[in-house]
Amino acid sequence: MPDTPAALELRDVAKSFGPVRALRSGSLRVEAGSIHALVGENGAGKSTLVKIVAGLYRRDAGDYLLAGEQVDFRNTADAKQAGVAVIYQEPTLFPDLSVTENIFMGRQPTNRWGRIDRAAMRTEVVELFARLGVPIEPDRPTEGLSIADQQLIEIAKALSLDAKVLIMDEPTAALSGNEVDRLMTVARTLRDQGCAVVFISHRFDEVFALCDTITVMRDGAYISTDPISEVTEDEIVQRLVGREVSDLYPKLEATVGKPMLEVKGLTSTGLFHDISLTVREGEIVGLAGLVGAGRSEVAQAIFGVDSYDSGEVTLDGRPIPPGDPRRAIEMGLAFVPEDRRQHGLVLDAPISRNITLPTSGRLARNGLISTGIENRSAADWAARLEVKAATLDALAGTLSGGNQQKVVLAKWLSTQPKVLIIDEPTRGIDVGTKSEVHRLLSTLAQEGLAILMISSELPEVLGMADRVIVLSEGHQTAELSREEATPEAVMRAATAHHSTTLNVSEAS
Amino acid sequence: GGSGSGDEGEGGGDTSSITFIPKNLGNPYFDASDKGGKNAAKEIGTKWAQVGPTESTPDSQVSFINTATQQRAGALVVSANDPTAIGDALEEARNAGTKVVTMDSDTEPQFRDVFVSQADAAGIAKSQVDLIAEQIGGKGEVAVLSAAANATNQNEWIKLMEEELAANHPDIKLVQTVYGDDDDQKSFDKTAGLLQSHPNLKGIISPTTVGIAAAARYLSDSQYKGKVALTGLGTPNQMREYIKDGTVKSFALWDPEQLGYLSAYAADALASGDIEGKEGDKFEAGDLGEYTVGADGVVVLGEPTVFDESNIDDFDF
Amino acid sequence: MTTTLDAPAPAAPQPRHRAANRLTWLLKQRETGIAVAFVALLVVTTAVNPNFLFSTDGWRDLTLTPAILVCLAIGQAMVIVTRNVDLSVGSTLGLTAYLAGRLFLDTGLPVIVVVLIAVAAGAVLGLINGVLVAFAKVPALVITLGTLYIYRGIMLEWAGSDRINASDIPPGLLDFGTGSFLFIPNLAWISFALLAAAIYLMRSTRVGREFYAIGSDPAAATLYGLRDKRRVLQAFATSGALAGLAGILYVSRYGTISSGVGQGIELEAVGAAVVGGVAIFGGSGTVLGAALGAYLLTTINRALPVLGIPDFWQQAVVGALIIGAIVLDRYFARRQHDKLLAEREES
Amino acid sequence: MSLLAEKTPARTYAAHAKPWWQRTLMTRDAAIIALLVVVWTYASIVILNFSDPITVYFLVLDVTPILLIALPMTLIIITGEIDLSVASVVGLSSVLFGVLHREGVPMVAAMVLALLACAVAGAFNGVLVTRFGLPSLAVTIGTMALFRGIAVGALGTTAITDWPDAWGDLVQARIGDSQIPLMTVPLVALIVIFAVVLHFTPFGRGIFAAGLSKDAARFSGVNVDRTKLILFTLSGLVSGLAGIYFTLRYGSARGDNATGLELQVVAAVLLGGVSIFGGRGAIPGVIAGVVLIGTIGSALRLDGLSANIIQIITGVLLIAAVIAASVLGWTGRIVGTYRRQHSSDEPSSKQSPQRKRSE
Ligand SMILES: Nc1ncnc2c1ncn2[C@@H]1O[C@H](COP(=O)(O)OP(=O)(O)OP(=O)(O)O)[C@@H](O)[C@H]1O
Ligand SMILES: Nc1ncnc2c1ncn2[C@@H]1O[C@H](COP(=O)(O)OP(=O)(O)OP(=O)(O)O)[C@@H](O)[C@H]1O
Ligand SMILES: [Mg+2]
Ligand SMILES: [Mg+2]
Prior knowledge:
The complex is a heterotetramer.
Chain B lengths: L13 E8 L6 H17 L2 E4 L7 H13 L2 E6 L8 H9 L3 E5 L10 E4 L3 H16 L3 E7 L5 H17 L3 E8 L4 H14 L3 E6 L2 H12 L8 E4 L3 H9 L5 E4 L2 H16 L10 E3 L5 E3 L5 E3 L4 E4 L9
Parallel strand pairs in B: 1-2, 1-3, 3-4, 4-5, 5-13, 6-7, 6-8, 8-9
Antiparallel strand pairs in B: 10-14, 11-12
Helix pairs in contact in B: 1-9, 2-3, 4-5, 6-7
Chain C lengths: L18 H10 L1 H19 L7 H9 L2 H15 L7 H18 L4 H26 L3 H20 L11 H8 L1 E2 L2 E2 H19 L1 H11 L1 H6 L4 H27 L10 H11 L11 H20 L7 H33 L1
Antiparallel strand pairs in C: 1-2
Helix pairs in contact in C: 2-14, 4-9, 4-10, 4-12, 4-13, 4-14, 5-6, 5-7, 5-12, 6-7, 6-12, 8-12, 9-10, 10-12, 13-14, 13-15, 14-15
Chain D lengths: L19 H6 L2 H19 L7 H25 L7 H17 L4 H24 L5 H20 L9 H8 L11 H17 L1 H11 L1 H6 L4 H27 L10 H11 L11 H20 L4 H28 L25
The complex binds adenosine-5'-triphosphate (ATP) (2 copies) and magnesium ion (MG) (2 copies).
């Protein structure tokens, strides 16, 4: 490189987790005094790259330079020491400790005797919060804070480090418009002071408003870097996806039948209010909203893994008892959760056991079940979904994300459900498998299954759903037909404050 | 620990080995009796071993009795942690040809051949009641600090003490019995508890060596020193300083070393077939001379010795 | 922060706890609850029998008897705060007490040297636990259960049927163990000093705060780059050293060392911490609470006979207390959780 | 493509990655069984009197209580919980049985009543753990003291010792002329029942799933709370059974029966290859673990060694066993089979084994 060294530079960095190649060749070059956008689809490897920069993961290959110097961090403390501040995608706070302590943990100001200077810490936090316009009490524990508040604390934490490089991994995902504006102001100020800022976001309006350079990643690899003024949104999307967007959503015509899932006035204090919806045979209903809108909570309450305060749920006319997932499954409800690794799969159990877990009672003969019985059933369903695995006793955790999702689908389809709730069907799945999943959902709907699909990806919702229900802050703000559901209408409903519930016709 | 038994004799027994199983290891009283047993075994010329549990519970003792059975030991000398709980194990041992002597703390008579008693129970109870009566002037509240709540000998003595008090010392009231489980700390803390719960307490009887030593230590630097009398069964070495500093006036004990010595001789006499453990059987016990088996297969060592300032320096155990 | 932003000037920090605030804060503390229970127990027992408090020995035993358990409970609380547990403290206490006894018996080293050796030995035993837990990544429960057996076995094997009597211990140490200074027993002073130091460590130093952080969320601790292995080692070593010190306290208090020294006391120490509000899965609770828990448990043991409850029931009461404490804790945590949710609802 | 209606087998899968002998022999269970065989053989050759058939007799009688309690304990630990109150339940059972017998209740009725009470005690643990969401470690440390206290308090100084001989003899009877205790028959029956329940029923599948991932199990329709409640109740019941055994074998009902047994049981279970994190373990390994500790104790005692060495060996074996698992796991991770939750690369709190506040 001929000119002055970049503040942060990565060259062909790779990282694998067992069989999963999260990052094949990640490259990034960020100049001091600039705001650099890093974009890519879910699972493109952005967060993995960030974690390597942060010293949390150690790269398998490639170069990592800070201000032209090769570095190799053993842990995140080393990286912080070197002036790298990171806001992670998921807030990571200590629930038992106060907001102030969370911001200063590991680098509290101390006096000569090693005594922590609480007053100094608090003063600085008050100052930081004032600058960010955050109304959080510095002495309260972080337990019970909303995701947005937690994200703001993460931002304050990163700011309080006198960082030369600041990386923000989707910091705005849970923030309101006001908070986003304030964050942007802060980012610009830091840039003007010579800081190298990396900004990761799926929202192109923010990216184009804030950043000066943009790097695109796809499938764990570097694709391109351009000054933001020289590219258009369409070009970026094309590079992101790697093909024409319209290929993605093979919606098949299905005949819509009688109502299968009916939810009336479902309410859970603090999470969601008065949710009512109906899903009919052969219909895909999309549930849209911003992250944290409470969609997953609604789904979990319907399925019975969470409790709710009031409301009722019926399946094919019969009420589903609250808090009893087993009964719900017997009645014909299936639920593919959002968090595959924690809720969807027993990662350390074989594929076969995962697939047969909800049906083990049905499969048992004289009350007894054996690996043989399980394997026969599992092999059948794995084959129908074309799960790519060599053996059935491979642990589910060793599969790639897409195949894990297929195992989850196999597991639920083997229960022969009448209604399928599917939360973020394609999160963290590569593009190829993604369209397979979409085709599968369409096929299932065509066969008469009623599907409630929760998705944060607008194109997915718009491409797949017959009807779209939008949630904002736990309130139902719109119900749009396929024709009414334009990106603008959905976004407006998703960001609406619930007191100003949208009029559907006005929105369309 | 000790050494294992030697070669296996014909008919499944090594008639010339004696195994001592005390209530628990690490107890100075049994260290002394084991010493006596070992000396006797040396004189007789038989093998001797001592094994036992670390806690004084019957179930842990059973494993060691079973092991002795497997080893076909000639004779077992056991101080029972429970009168019945180890009975079946002892029966099993006897069926395998092992002779069983209980020492210090008996089982029910059907489970053993001979019980070597340190002194007859009534005598022990009476001597302690007399000692405490003398020290507190024949009047007032006393309490008992015992070992485990299930210890056979302790409970029998306590019962006899109550009878003795009722019969001959109507002005002395036994207000409470507490259990220190032959655990030093527990006995110490129980003493503290006793003194607090009974402000008018005049005396404590602790018929167990661990208990009396712990109680003496508590009293020696408390406000009660010299005000609350203490007596019971203790070893001179443990109690010497408390006699000297005036915490304790007098206490009693037989010589545990002699007890072990006598038990080993009784065991050997049984194992070699000299006696069967019937009333009237006679056997030689080395330096101690001839002993006769009494009713129920009991052999009595003799009267306990009373230790006080005048004679305590004459003993070393 | 050296950068200055063109943002609103920082609001001056408001005076936080005014008198009234401070009072409600105090009332909300878990420690207050235990202290109140402790005082209530004292009042009731003393009403039944004034000797319980108003006699030289009653007063002395009040602070003297819990000293050893307080020592262990402080160490245990530190370990539990890091989301671990140390079941080996009873055996460590036994082993170090015997070690000290042997040193007195065999070497004639000055008392202070023996004390230091015993504490160091305890620290080493604790460090072994820590190394196994931190590096082998095996749960502390299993490791310390194993070392509970090993340390006890080593002590028993070493001691054989020897036991150490008061006459083998330097009289100076024994006098110290039962003596007082300013009407408060020496051992109680030691436990107070330790407690003060531990409170300072846990509240006001990075080490202490990182103990809490690691226990609160181990994964976040990694993200923060905290040296979690080192902290776990430190917590276990401290717990071991305190157990070593407790061994010395035991020697000076009781004078005799038999094979069962400290057996079962590990569960009392865990119980004291739990009663004192230390969450068993780490992250919250204080050493003060654990120490108060130790006071409460020990004093209940002494108070029951005075109250006319046969001492056979002591354990049942202790058990009920532990259960009550954790149920209550959960209840308050739930209420707090619901309150926070409701607050969010309003805002 | 029709998914729900008819079969379209597009692919086939091998059932297993490794041949059966590797799957059977290269396991913790097999290792511990092999160790048992080695120790047994060695002791038979080297230690005098060990090869005597009566060794088996005493060994079985000695390990019976631990073996009994180890069965439900295995299931509980596999769900990721623990029950430290078992030994106290043994004491409770013994005392209740004794008191009822003393009051003239017929033997069988007294037994049934005592067992019922113990099941209730176990259910009490279970309710505190599942309904109140309390950590089982803390709960059962509390009930350990509580149950023991009730047992000791109810009987006070006395031990109840007047038991009909017939019952004691029954417990210690041999099968025919052999040195095999009659107790072996119900014991083996129970072992088989527990092994079948754990390894061959949907309930057992739920136990493993709950231990590996409580959330994933719940999201798959496993009633994790109910499963745990049943297991804690079962643990109380079986511990009660062990208490009856204790009482009859020693002909003595005492409150302090089996003190400290809980740690021995936990040690044996963990030695038998059950992971304290939950989700892993098998009955054969546990049986081998229990018998191994019993055998080593028996051999050492026969060799004239004291109980102390037995403690040291138990502790070393326990630690060695778990460290071996973690070392093996570490090598295993390189081939990508290691549990994600121990991996240092993944600090995701979502997978930390003891996730608190999971409500
Ligand atoms: N710890 C892990 N173990 C196994 N696979 C992982 C792990 N972390 C990430 N992956 C996989 O690596 C790939 C890249 O993940 P990464 O989180 O970096 O994506 P991303 O670009 O940040 O996506 P998003 O926009 O959804 O945040 C995904 O397929 C993911 O499933
Ligand atoms: N375990 C929890 N405890 C407390 N609050 C929670 C918990 N899980 C989620 N929440 C809160 O519930 C609200 C909705 O959660 P969630 O993020 O699942 O919504 P969502 O609409 O499904 O969003 P996503 O796009 O992430 O799926 C958020 O405000 C979140 O902070
Ligand atoms: Mg990401
Ligand atoms: Mg969601």
